[in-house]
Specification:
This protein has 116 residues and is mostly beta strands. The protein is 0% helix and 59% strand. The chain contains no helices and 11 strands. The strands form 2 sheets. Strands 2, 4, 5, 9, 10 and 11 form a 6-stranded mixed beta sheet that branches. The protein starts with a strand and ends with a strand.
Length: 116
């Protein structure tokens, strides 16, 4: 059963921006959320996060935010560089009707490639 779906990954040139999305399905909403980046041959690296009750986190070139329904979170990445290349995964704690549904759910990932 698919609960989280990421999208927005693309091939971009250095200096460009992208906005990734992570959507919760099946009437679920997102409480805590974490975005990770994975490069082939390396472990997943935490990029940024927000906790339940937080709506935005600005960390350098990366802005993590959520919509008012709490079903979608956004990772805006500015001034992308080749080192930002990788597969980006959202990892979330989910709620159903404002009650805890479960912890540590992963999406399938979305690929970001930064290259000239």
């Amino acid at each position: 059963q698919v609960r989280l779906v990421e999208s927005g990954g693309a091939l971009v040139q250095p200096g460009e921006s992208l906005r990734l999305e992570c959507v919760a399905h099946s009437a679920l909403s997102i409480a805590g959320i974490r975005w990770y980046r994975q490069v082939v041959g390396k472990t997943r690296e935490l990029v940024t996060s927000i906790s339940k009750g937080e709506n935005i986190n600005v960390k350098g070139r990366f802005t993590l935010s959520r919509d008012n329904t709490k079903t979608t979170v956004y990772l805006k990445m500015d001034n992308l560089q080749p080192d930002d290349t990788g597969t980006y995964f959202c990892n979330a704690d989910l709620e159903l009707a404002r009650e805890t549904y479960g912890y540590d759910y992963w999406g399938q990932g979305t690929r970001v490639t930064v290259s000239s």
